[in-house]
Amino acid sequence: MVNYRELAKTIGALTEGETDEVALMATVVCELHHSDSRFDWTGFYRVTEPELLKIGPYQGGHGCLVIPFGKGVCGVAAESGETQLVADVDAFPGHIACASSTRSEIVLPVRNSTGDIIAVLDIDSDQPDAFTQADAEALSEILSQVFAR
Ligand code: SME
């Protein structure tokens, strides 16, 4: 089980002084993915134009390249600006299955220092109901630490 306090310290040290979003995303994904056996796919989808997400740095099997706002768990998170905590992906209307093994998912909006949504962080698990509100709060804190500073 991930130790979010230690993970935040590690990510903070690795990303200190860096402002390039892709470099920051690649580092966050690498550290996150290997921190917890629940995380079977970890990646960012970036806002590349209004109402459109495109895949960014990720770890795990291939992910779909493009997701319109409002589509899938990622598109709903981007459109609503709200974290999506999905205990059962089969029960989520319009879930986009990049892997048939995925059972649960958490997707968080990523905001920059001016509050604009620049991406979403998507973590998939092959375990049902794998994510908790505590995960959502800790992950949101790490995203703010890195992208909204
Ligand atoms: N499940 C996501 C799509 C991304 S793949 O899982 C990597 C969704 O429904 O938006």
Task: Spell out the key features of this protein.
single chain; 149 residues; alpha+beta; Beta-Lactamase; 4 helices; 6 strands; binds methionine sulfoxide
Could you give a short description of this structure?
By secondary structure, the protein is of the alpha+beta class.
Question: Can you describe this structure?
Answer:
- Helices cover 33% and strands 27% of the residues.
- By secondary structure, the protein is α+β, with helices and mostly antiparallel strands.
- A hairpin with a 2-residue loop joins strand 1 and strand 2.
- The radius of gyration is 14 Å and the shape is globular.
- The mean pLDDT is 98.
- The site of methionine sulfoxide has 14 residues, from helix 3 and strand 6.
